[in-house]
Amino acid sequence: MAKGITTRASDYSKWYLDVIDAADLAEHSAVRGCMVIKPNGYALWENIQSQLDAMFKETGHQNAYFPLFIPESFMKKEAEHVEGFAPECAVVTHGGGKELEEKLYVRPTSETIIWSTYKKWIQSYRDLPILINQWANVVRWEMRTRLFLRTLEFLWQEGHTAHATRQEAVAETKLMIDVYRRFAEEYLAAPVFVGVKTAAERFAGALDTYCIEAMMQDKKALQAGTSHFLGQNFAKAFDVTFQDENGALEHVWATSWGVSTRLIGALIMTHSDDNGLVIPPRLAPIKVVLVPIWKDESQRAMMVEATDRLTKGWKGRIAFKVDDREQYRPGFKFNEWEKRGVPLRVELGPKDLESNQVILVRRDTGEKIAAPQEGLLEKIEQLLEEIQSALYQRARVFRDANTFEEDDFQAFQKLIEEPGGFFWVHWCGQAACEATFQETSKATIRLIPIDGSKEQKAAALFAASRRPLEYWWQNLISRIALILQPCGVRRIL
RNA sequence: CGGGGCGUAGCGCAGUCCGGUUAGCGCGCCUGGUUCGGGACCAGGAAGUCGGAGGUUCAAAUCCUCUCGCCCCGACCA
Question: The sheet that has A69-71: what strands, in order across it?
Fold first, then answer.
């Protein structure tokens, strides 16, 4: 069937790499831990970028660009931030053949360089809010890497906003995690849980880290995006103050939020199958591929001409490709475009020409549909939307079927190993208990839900569990943690 | 940094233990022909500092020493 692609069942990690290879998305570079994103992979990123960028603009943000290099002294200003990032930073010590007076960190994230700049931009409440995003590359010296999921250098966007009040900053943090949720659901076709991280998993320097967590086909979690409420930590570290309406001097409130090329990893692991990549139509660089079929030279000319006629007027309306290469037979082409995840294939052969029809083949289901040539573009557009929503539904059903509630810790320890999945469980809010969870079950707390959907249940479960009241974290008293299997690929920030 | 594995054609590998023709095989690539509704076939062809350096030897991909790099497992991971 799919030559060269390891099945998911036999070796999931190998399958993941095989899919990337088969779809020609990326490859390892000469530099350890760094990847080359090839045209097919980059086209996906460009589509992700343009959609997200539009969503950022809609919510009032503007793009800007800050330097790759950050003076060491900046990195060291915010205590938690230093501690969190120092171990994984690349540091430049020489420039122009001379040792630098002050070392320069290659940005692992840009809070420090940005807040040192915001200090100059902000004097009055009239200067706020500042709503800026930047598309950039960052470097984090990870010990183990996997293509798209964790590499030393990766591409991302990082939003950095400044506000006059706590409420406004919190609202911004929530707004942006909701933008990410919408993007994941409507474009990646990936259902996500939204919540906040525990203190242990929080961004270094944040008061709260909101996240979206998606379930991959191996039932493990992938952190797909984070949005941080930074409080006044960076404003204090960089002494960024403003005068309010009453003339009082106050520190500015901050947020930051980001998603990265890891989303491509999420896309692969959410939808792809043993035949290769599956791309949700809305993000597909090529949405339809047309394969004319012929037996001899004269037929070839006829079929290519028919294909041209059929696609007349499609340009600018839909991203399509006609594969009329002579050196490959149809079967080869079918397979090639399947591996590459093109959502829909149109076959057009002599028989179809006679009966004024085409054969449509869905990448997600493999279903073949005979359709009239009349009104083909409309039919295709409709099918693409169907595929988009079918992919979401399929992923949703899979996730829900593998998400459980469990009251009993002993039972949970067994279930997390087999069958695995996501588990809503009790957590008292104490770091010590979180550590125990992780040590004894190899599970991590992925998030604490914020949408209130679990609160009733939590209260009930809490009563039933008879745990001492003081173990509950006051702010989160009715929340339950989402816990799941440990995953080598669990965070983006 | 610890444990294990691997560097031979673009890719995947055999050959290395036990030194000895012109270093092979599959895929891919190039040329020509026949094919073409689910990964075509035939014929011909191009392509290699055997990771690097040094040594042993009449002779090294093969033996010895050093060295570089990569992969997997662990440690690490806001």
Answer: A69-71, A98-106, A91-95
Interatomic CA–C1' length for residue A4 and nucleotide B26, angstroms: 13
Dihedral sign (CA A119, A122, A124, A129): negative
- The pairing of strands A62-63 and A130-139 is parallel
Bridge partners, residue A99, by sequence: A94
CA atoms within 13 Å, Cβ hemisphere of A282: 21
Query: Which bases of strand B have any atom within 7 Å of the beta carbon of a protein residue?
Result: 1, 35-40, 69-78
Cα–Cα distance list, A102 to A65, A67, A75, A130 (Å): 22, 16, 12, 29
Residue A82 belongs to domain with CATH number: 3.30.930.10
Q: What is the ipTM of this complex?
A: 0.89
Nearest to A183 by CA among A279, A257, A109, A263: A263
Helix (H, G, I), strand (E, B) or coil at A244: coil
Q: Do A145 and A238 reside in the same domain of the chain? A: yes
Structure tokens given for A147: 């293509």
Does residue A263 sit in the same domain as residue A311? no
- Strand B proximal to A296 Cβ, under 7 A: yes
Closest CA to A222 of A246, A182, A191: A191
Domain range for A363 is 288-383
pLDDT (tens digit, 9 = 90+) per residue, A377-389? 999 999 999 999 9
A18 CB-to-strand B distance under 7 Å: no
Q: What is the pLDDT of residues A151-187, one digit of tens each?
A: 889 999 999 999 999 999 999 999 999 999 999 999 9
Determine the distance between A323 (CA) and B19 (C1') in angstroms.
Answer: 53
Return d(Cα A266, Cα A95) in angstroms, integer: 38
Q: Which CATH number goes with the domain that contains A462? A: 3.30.110.30
Say if residues A242 and A252 touch (Cβ distance below 8 Å).
Answer: yes
